Amino acid sequence: MTVWVAAALLFSAVQLSSPAPQPPPPPGNRIVAQDGDTVVVDHHARVRIVRSTQANVRAVFNAAEHWVMVLADSLRTADLTAAWIPRAATTA
């Protein structure tokens, strides 16, 4: 019984200790991957991965009520004008 209690205490102590915070990674190279590329990341490499796509985006902000609404339509088709976000929603 004491072995299980000691093991449980040791396990909980290991979980409570957190590693020291590391500084942010240094600025690196920007690599634009193309379709079919293979990206190899070393086990200890700290990298940033950003997936991007083109989209039509409209934002509506209400300062009086403190809210913002963002509408986004991903442009996955060849017809970039066929967006579901109405263009009438924009203001000059």
Overview of the structural elements:
With 92 residues, the protein is an alpha+beta fold. It has a domain at 53-87. The protein contains one helix and two strands. It has one helix spanning 2-16; strands at 55-62, 67-74. Strands 1-2 form a two-stranded antiparallel ribbon. A hairpin with a 4-residue loop joins strand 1 and strand 2. The model has no long low-confidence stretch (mean pLDDT 74).
- Helix share of residues? 10-25%
Task: Give a quick account of the main beta sheet: strands, pairing sense, barrel closure.
Answer: 2 strands, antiparallel
The pLDDT mean sits at 74
The count of helical stretches stands at: 1
Q: Strand order, main sheet: write it out.
A: 1-2
Relative strand content: 15-25%
Structural class: alpha+beta
> How many angstroms separate the termini?
74 Å
- The ordered H/E elements are HEE
Q: Let me know the number of strands.
A: 2
> Uncertain runs with pLDDT below 50, 5 residues or more?
none
**What gyration radius follows from the Cα positions, in whole Å?**
25 Å
Per the principal axes of the C-alpha atoms, what is the gross shape? flat
Question: Could you list some keywords that capture this structure?
Answer:
alpha+beta, 16% helix, 17% strand
